[in-house]
Amino acid sequence: MSKVEFFLNEIKAGAIAGWHKYGILPSVTAAQAALESAWGTSQLSLAPNHNLFGIKGSYQGQSVQFPTWEVINGQNVTVNATFRKYPSWSVSVEDHGSFFHENSRYSGIIGLTDFVAQARGIKAAGYATDPLYADKLIATIEANGLTSWDRLALSGQAETIEEKQTSYTVQLGDNLSLIAKKFQTTTEELVRINHISNPNLIYPGQVLQLNSTINKTYTVQSGDALSLIAIKLGISMEHLIQKNNIANPDLIYAGQVLHYD
């Protein structure tokens, strides 16, 4: 399973619930989380901070200081800011919807059913200083088929969804043998999937994948650049270069099929 699949599986239920409670489309929630947290890999998004959206301030008195970049007068600058600190990703997703309701400047985007309009409205209301923020949200939604989440939420069926578990967070007292038995797999398979060098050495909080990674492809479109494709897919440009044996990163063509994990 790729980091994109893992990340989306982790936040899907909360994103869909956010539509019913706060009127924020799940596709927009997911795209914002992906961009702001680099698909759940940024230091701010990881334990013990769990802030997926770069929301500033404090949450129930908890906060953390981090440097961040802003676009001010057309220039990229780095500033130190105070960000909300959450106990988990699910709480971060919940607070994301609450944030829009707490701030009256976002009142015009609540309940919009067009993800393009909601994405552009969020940018126009001042959520981010990046002039391309809305375009990046829209590209992320389209590249990852996130409008299917919107259709599900708008159909009213979202709250009955049950998904097969695809990852497991190691708990105190766990070992690979017990985890393998719990999920009807083998220790050897868990070792292979997660590239574990020492089967006797796992630690609480470690996230184990339960299914093998599926190879995917992306067909280059007119106007694409490798860096933009990497952002859309939530992977590094270096991964695309290595996976596809690309000699010149500036030379790709429409119709070219790129492989990625």
UniProtKB/TrEMBL annotation:
PROSITE patterns per record: LYSM
GO molecular function: amidase activity
Keyword terms: Antimicrobial, Bacteriolytic enzyme, Hydrolase
SUPFAM superfamilies per the UniProt record, alphabetical: LysM domain
Chain ranges of the LysM domain: 166-210, 216-260
Record keyword Phosphoprotein present: no
One record GO biological process: killing of cells of another organism
Membership in a protein family: Belongs to the glycosyl hydrolase 73 family.
UniProt name for this protein: Peptidoglycan hydrolase
Source organism: Carnobacterium divergens DSM 20623
